[in-house]
Structure formats: structure tokens, C-alpha cells
Amino acid sequence: MRRTPRALSFDLDDTLWDCDEVIERAERRVYDWLAAHYPRIAAEFDLEAMRGIRKEAAERDPRLTTDLSELRRVTLAWHAQRAEYDPGLAEVGLEVFLAERNRVTLFTDVLPVLQALGRRYPLVALTNGNADLARIGLDHLFTLSLSAVDVGAAKPDPAMFRAVCEALEIRAGDLLHVGDDPVRDVHAARRFGARTVWVNRTASGWPEDLPRAHHEIETFAALHELLEDSGDGA
């Protein structure tokens, strides 16, 4: 790495843990809760149909794509009204979702590397979603945590990266961003001017129409090694 970064930013979902498994479990938990307490909703819509309702709501109001909790609250309230239940169930249902959504299992190599890197760099969490580091129990490792709700825009919009640099008083080139998504993480951060690390745990192919990440790793151990060599490599 030609230049030692002054701060590291990390995507959360699918970078620090497997997101699909978490969301699937959380949505199933909400559906089972609805079936037990508000059966008219579950009788009319299965889980896949409810996902479709959320997709349609986001298409009608794109602002909801930057606040996924509000998207779930709005659609739960819609279901409640349609089934002639108290719309207040939406708040409780959202909490049922968030409680399960924030019960994550880190990839096994993540925690020791974050702990080690946190002793050398400010660590920043950046997410388009609604993961809550305090509820997960990781907030003590990060200097700053920003979501799409916080900045009013979701990656790949540069607003989130800009907010990091402004908060830490660093230049774009001083930031190293680590993430799994070629577009939302790597390409977005690179266009902003940050250095980039693509976490490719599944040996996926890189999109042909995008410039590659500055660095590609399969494990967080490789990230630690990369940063140990800062200033010595290419």
C-alpha cells in the first residue's frame, strides 16, 4: 500500500456478517408474530407477498430506500389498516424485527482484526441498512457510525464518505474503505477519492465495466496483513 490511511471505514452487512441469513430470520420472526397476534394479516399475505408490498412502497416513494426501518413501519401500518387492526402494531412489529435483525454472528476472522486495527486507526461504520452497533455490542470498537438515515443518502451516493471525512477532518485520499459490494462500496468510495478494499469471500467475479478495487481480500486476516505492510508495498 503506497500510502498509510488515516482512518478505515467498513460496510456492515455481508462485510462483517452474513446479512441474508439475518434478514431471513428476522422477517420470519415478524411473520410468525403477526400470525399469532394479528392472524388476518397472515391469512391474506404470505412472507413473499409482504416483501412485494415493501418493494412497491419503495418504488412509489424512493425516500423510503434511505430509511429501511421507516419502510417496514409504513408497510406494517398499511397491513394493519387493511386488516382493520390498530395501526399501532407497526411500532411493535418493527421492534420485533429490529431485535432479531441485530442478533448477528460475525464472520470468525472479523472481531480480532477490528480490535487490532482499532488500536491504530479510527474505525468508522457505514451502512445503508438499519444495523445498530450498540445493540449488536460493537459500538465500542468504532469512532463513528453513520447510516443512510443519518446523512440523508445511501451508498453509492458520496454523501456518506464525505460525512466521514468532514467528521474526522481528513481528505478523501486518507480514507480506506472496506466493503463487499463492488458498486455501493468499492466503486462509490473510489469515485469519491478514497482507497478501497474489496472483501470477496466467495471468489466472485468482478464486474467488467468497473475499475477494480485497489486491493482485494478473501479474509480479514489479509486486511490486517495489508495494513501491517502500509508504506512498504504497492
Give the number of domains: 2
**Integer average pLDDT:** 95
What is the architecture of the largest domain at the second tier of CATH? 3-Layer(aba) Sandwich
Strand order of the largest sheet: 3-2-1-4-5-6
- Spell out the helices and strands N to C: EHHHHHHEHEHHEHEEH
Unreliable stretches (pLDDT < 50, length at least 5) are none
Strand content: 5-15%
CATH topology of the largest domain: Rossmann fold
> Which radius of gyration do the C-alpha atoms yield?
19 Å
| Beta strand count | 6
Question: Could you explain how this protein is built, in words?
Answer:
The chain has two domains: about 5-15 and about 105-230, HAD superfamily/HAD-like (Rossmann fold, 3-Layer(aba) Sandwich), CATH 3.40.50; about 20-100, Four Helix Bundle (Hemerythrin (Met), subunit A) (Up-down Bundle). The model has no long low-confidence stretch (mean pLDDT about 95). α3 (about 45-60) crosses α4 (about 70-80). It has helices at about 20-35, 40-45, 45-60, 70-80, 90-100, 110-120, 135, 150, 160-170, 180-190, 220-230, and strands at about 5-10, 125, 145, 175-180, 195-200, 215. The chain contains eleven helices and six strands. The protein is α/β, with parallel strands linked by helices. α10 links the parallel β4 (about 175-180) and β5 (about 195-200). The protein is elongated, with a radius of gyration of 19 Å. Helices cover about 50% and strands about 10% of the residues. It has a six-stranded parallel beta sheet with strand order 3-2-1-4-5-6, with helices on both faces. About 30% of the residues are buried.
